[in-house]
Write a structure and sequence with these properties.
124 residues, proton-transporting ATPase activity, rotational mechanism, hydrogen ion transport, ATP hydrolysis activity, V-type proton ATPase subunit G, transport
């Protein structure tokens, strides 16, 4: 946030310098034709200066943005590796314990022992 306000401040300063150059050009020229040419030249110089500053700030912004986006892609790659490792680990546990769990489940379902429930009361 600080760099944005700094950049805005610098842009405003560049525009102020451009206005000062225009005022200076107005004062220096005495004739109407010379005055118009000098104003046009000062305006062009100011526009060039503003464009150069804008390009410099844009380049800095893109550099910072590429650093941030690059670090985000590294994080996503790292997370992807961790996820694949966890999936492989879970598949290994599944294959290791699948048969014993299936046998236990089948024995509970198939080997029924009829018993009377403890809360059952015989009514006569």
């Amino acid at each position: 946030m600080m760099s944005q306000s700094q950049g805005i401040h610098q842009l405003l300063q560049a525009e102020k310098r451009a206005k000062d150059k225009l005022e200076e050009a107005k004062k220096k020229t005495g004739t109407a034709s010379g005055k118009g040419k000098r104003l046009k030249q000062a305006k062009e110089e100011a526009m060039v200066e503003i464009d150069q500053y804008r390009m410099q700030r844009d380049k800095e912004f893109r550099l910072i943005q590429s650093k941030i986006m690059g670090s985000q892609s590294n994080l996503s790659d790292e997370i992807e590796e961790q996820t694949l490792g966890k999936i492989q680990e879970l598949n290994g546990h599944y294959n290791k314990h699948m048969e014993s769990v299936m046998n236990q489940l089948l024995s509970m379902v198939c080997d029924m022992k009829p018993e009377i429930h403890v809360n059952y009361r015989a009514t006569n």
